[in-house]
Amino acid sequence: QVQLVESGGGLVQAGGSLRLSCAVASRLTFSNYAMGWFRQAPGKEREFVAAISWNGGSTKYTDSVKGRFTLSRDNAKNTVYLQMNSLKPEDTAVYYCAGDPLGKVRSDLHERFFRFWGQGTQVTVSS
C-alpha cells in the first residue's frame, strides 16, 4: 500500500510564498518513483503542475509556473517539496501529489501515468 500525504497549503496574499510537502509511506522504494504535482481549481479539470525524476536530475513544469515554482525531493526522507513563490490568485487550487512508477519524467505527463495519489492540500491566494 502506498500512502501520500500532502501538507503546507494555506491562505497567502498575492506575491507570497508557500512550500508544499508530500511525504510518502510505502512498502515500495520511494526513490524508484518519479513524483508530480497536479492542481484542480474550482470548476476546472485537474492539471499538471510539475514533475521530478527518481533522482531529482530531471524536472518539468507547466508554463504558467516556470520561474516561480521549484520542485525538489529528498529520497532519504521519502519527501518531495514544491516551493511556490510569487503566488498569483490563479494559483488557487487543491494541490495533489502523485507517484509515477516509471521513475523518469515522461514527455507526456497526463495524470493517467501517475498511479498513486494523495488527498490534496488547499492553496488559496488572495488578491
General form: globular
Strand content: over 45%
- As a percent range, the share of helical residues equals under 10%
Distance between the termini: 40 Å
Descriptive report:
With 127 residues, the chain is an all-beta fold. Helix content is 0%, strand content 50%. The chain has strands spanning 2-7, 10-13, 18-26, 34-40, 47-52, 59-61, 69-74, 79-84, 93-100, 116-117, 121-126. Strands 2, 4, 5, 6, 9, 10 and 11 form a seven-stranded mixed sheet that branches. It has a four-stranded antiparallel sheet with strand order 1-3-8-7, with no helix packed on it. The model has no long low-confidence stretch (mean pLDDT 95).
Give the helices and strands, then pairings:
Blueprint: E1 2-7, E2 10-13, E3 18-26, E4 34-40, E5 47-52, E6 59-61, E7 69-74, E8 79-84, E9 93-100, E10 116-117, E11 121-126
Parallel strand pairs: 2-11
Antiparallel strand pairs: 1-3, 3-8, 4-5, 4-9, 5-6, 7-8, 9-10, 9-11
Task: Provide key terms for this protein.
127 residues, mainly beta
Quick recap:
The protein is mostly beta strands and about 130 residues long. It has strands at about 1-5, 10-15, 20-25, 35-40, 45-50, 60, 70-75, 80-85, 95-100, 115, 120-125.
